Amino acid sequence: MTVLAPVLDELAAGLPADAVLTDPASTEAYRHDEANFCPSGTPLAVVRPTATEQVQHVLRVASAHRVPVVPQGSRTGLSGAANAVDGGIVLSLSRMDQIVEINPVDQVAVVEPGVLNAVLSRAVLEQGLYYPPDPSSWELSTIGGNLATNAGGLCCVKYGVTTDFVRALEVVMASGEILRTGRRTAKGVAGYDLTRLIVGSEGTLGVITQATLGLKPAPEAALTMAAAFTTAADALTAVTKIMAAGLQPSMCEFLDGVTVRAIQDYRDMGLPTGVGALLLTQSDRGPRAAADVEAMGVICGELGALDVAVASDATESAMLMEARRIVHFAVEKLGSTLIDDVAVPRSRLVDLLDGITVIAQEHGVTVCCPGHVGDGNMHPTVIFDRGDPAAVERAQKAFDAIMRLGLALGGTITGEHGVGVLKRDWLATELGELSTRLHRDIKKAFDPLGILNPGKVLAAG
Amino acid sequence: MTVLAPVLDELAAGLPADAVLTDPASTEAYRHDEANFCPSGTPLAVVRPTATEQVQHVLRVASAHRVPVVPQGSRTGLSGAANAVDGGIVLSLSRMDQIVEINPVDQVAVVEPGVLNAVLSRAVLEQGLYYPPDPSSWELSTIGGNLATNAGGLCCVKYGVTTDFVRALEVVMASGEILRTGRRTAKGVAGYDLTRLIVGSEGTLGVITQATLGLKPAPEAALTMAAAFTTAADALTAVTKIMAAGLQPSMCEFLDGVTVRAIQDYRDMGLPTGVGALLLTQSDRGPRAAADVEAMGVICGELGALDVAVASDATESAMLMEARRIVHFAVEKLGSTLIDDVAVPRSRLVDLLDGITVIAQEHGVTVCCPGHVGDGNMHPTVIFDRGDPAAVERAQKAFDAIMRLGLALGGTITGEHGVGVLKRDWLATELGELSTRLHRDIKKAFDPLGILNPGKVLAAG
After folding, report:
1. Do A187 and B163 touch (CB under 8 A)?
2. C-beta atoms of A161 and B427 within 8 A
3. What is the ipTM for the molecules in this complex?
């Protein structure tokens, strides 16, 4: 500590009295996000700034002393991207939680990174506007975390992901300098797209301290269809037909039989158990919505759906949505989990699920499969007993095999959860040598000393 | 030529016999795009490859001999980005014009860069699909050029610009290596977003040889509203009210009085002359469209529109669209033109137009103002007599003053036309020192020898 004391003293000199935590009892909660099997270190300090100048101060001190800095939101991530590193500074942005502006003419919101997704979503809705990205963690996760991971969600199938709604960023660089990227305007092509380079870079290129987000007019209330199938393959075939028919679902979610039962065991949501799969779709196309969900239902019926139901009111729709949102908690009751996040072209979904079934058998593990299937994004979740080393090993092998399968089907190792430390080695496999080299060169241009979230996304050094 | 002969020999060795043009009479047409006042050099050769391996060959030879390479599409650009440089190779991608695949389930098209925008748009429409980006040049411009400039168009106000529809790229690097970015899937967050870094980089980072583009279901036929106003300010105020009302126009175009008269003089399109401005809007929301355009009309009426008309059939709608599309040609009849491309937050449109009026008066020039005003993107076009040096100087000063105004209003120097050589110095002003430095570092990571489109976007060296 004697060596580190000057760092702490310098940090404290430019921050409010309660901004720096060093007591292990206080810093413990900031050590890691929700991912399993991701190493997390013991930080030198947790710093909680309330203004951009304070973030600049932290980065200047960190640069001067070559101390790693891990930017952090609510730690709801699933890849360890926000995990502390030994002797580093955890830079929690949660206290920078102001909505600076909501403008209905320009259809933009200007926010600090600590604003919760749900808080922003509700605030813009009050003005008839819509911020679509809606990760399942939306009640807990921050916009800063959403930006850092380019978060997806249920709405993506129609409206796109976080990066599609980012217009401009204020970013504190590793040096403490302020970079402004993008612009408030709807269009703009002046220079390289640094905004979208930073979105999804998981805190490795800079610290986002303000974002200008594009908004849409609030959609009309959605109608929901639920269809139960004997086999998962039929449900996934229905998805390809629904999309090819141009029906534009505003949600298109898949729950395999194990997941449906897990939800129902966790909380009685009135779901049919003993089925092979449940497909939940929505349409928010106003006067078209009723015909849309009916057409979706007809497609499901033709594929042998056991039961097709259209939610008759908003309460019933909300209940089905809630069932989807609690998947993470319900599945965790089944045992320890390794949550995968592969995305494949929609046309390969059946191949993906068939392959996962084989992988589960080969490795003797249970894999449940909820997924944003309208986007081809599946969350195969390996369930295992953490106390049994052999089971842990089998789970990790199955997890890896699923990513290998996703890549073989023309997909990606991560549709929305990000790389963090969990998939760092797999990223190199997906990118290949040339792209990895470019990633390192870009990282070096932004962060020559390598102090920003080292060891995340790219291996250190 | 003796020094250069080895380069030509090496080029020819890996290319079809008719791929290399060196005769000045043949290469002349490839020297520049449609921008005025942009220097263009005399190329060593124009090379027209038909396959990716040939592009690799060209880049390898160019790297070995440090010869500049200017990637080029149809030369419809308006910033000189495709202009030849002295002694360099013009790499025309027009012969790589295959549509490799259109997939209705995955809703993607895979294309070579030389495919014309209109050819792709019609091909996907035959399968019930929609590729939205529609620059006014869509009948002539290539997808490769659209990608290089991140082209916009009329549809952007609802559907977004080129970058919003790009999923994956095959790129030949300056070294001749092949870089694959992105993925075919709808979602994916594995690594930094190199795809969108390359889109809009105007051929300075690599040569796009294949693109995987996202598609949407074909929209329903749009209804069109046209409203004539006494003053431009009223028309622009109508735009802000239409957008704030959440009416989601699929087109929202503004023509000032000078432009309306120029179109009508160029071709009789039945437009009302003697007005201050004409606003053209569309809605493609199916059953909502009629109510949408009526509501837009009511807003215009309340703001004192002289005349509000809803196109009663598709032919009439197409005619109004055509009127918008021929603006470029109509305005060129008025004299030599300097076409600006500022975009401002929609709420500042009235301020922009007021400022432009002042600038026109101060510099004694005529400025007509067509614009994609739904996006805040205006094309103030300075009309002048090229034969009069004093008039040329006044025009250039007015052109610069308009960009300065755009920046002062929180906007950008270019909404969709790009930087090229025309706005290279202004780009540094918009970006500032830090961002410019990062641009240079990124350029260097991709193109260490600086052979790719040197002097475009960033000043050489």
Report:
1. no
2. no
3. 0.97
Final residue of a structural domain among B279, B298, B327:
B327
- Is A287 near chain B, with CB under 8 Å? yes
Same domain assignment for residues B186 and B113: yes
> How many structural domains comprise chain A?
3
CB contact under 8 A, B442 and A445: yes
CB contact under 8 A, B108 and A194: no
Tell me whether B382 touches chain A (CB under 8 Å).
no
Report the CATH number that the domain containing residue B56 is assigned in CATH: 3.30.43.10
Residues 6+ apart with CB under 8 A from A341: A78, A377, A378, A379, A413, A414, A415, A416, A417
Same domain as B119, residue B107: yes
pLDDT tens string B337-385: 999 999 999 999 999 999 999 999 999 999 999 999 999 999 999 999 9
Any chain B CB within 8 A of the CB of A212? Answer: no
CATH number of the domain where residue B194 is located: 3.30.465.10
According to the model, what pLDDT value does residue B343 have? 98
Interface test with A, best of B192, B198, B443 (most A CBs within 10 A): B192
Which residue in A has a C-alpha nearest to residue B166's C-alpha? A164
Contacts of A434 in chain B (CB under 8 A): 173, 177-179
A106 and A141 both lie in a single domain: yes
pLDDT mean over B9-37:
96
Residues A238, A207 within the same domain: no
> Residues of A numbered 335-354 whose beta carbons fall under 8 angstroms of chain B's beta carbons: which are they?
343-347
Q: Chain B residue with minimal CA distance to A422?
A: B190
Is B187 in Cβ contact with A416 (below 8 Å)?
yes
A147 — contact with chain B (CB < 8 Å)?
no
| CATH code, domain with B287 | 3.30.70.2190
Contact B107 A243 (CB under 8 A): yes
pLDDT tens by residue, A66-84? 999 999 999 999 999 999 9
Q: Tell me which residue range forms the domain holding A254.
A: 221-267+277-322
Among the three residues A43, A70, A92, which one is the final residue of a domain in this structure? A92
- B26–chain A nearest CA distance, Å: 32
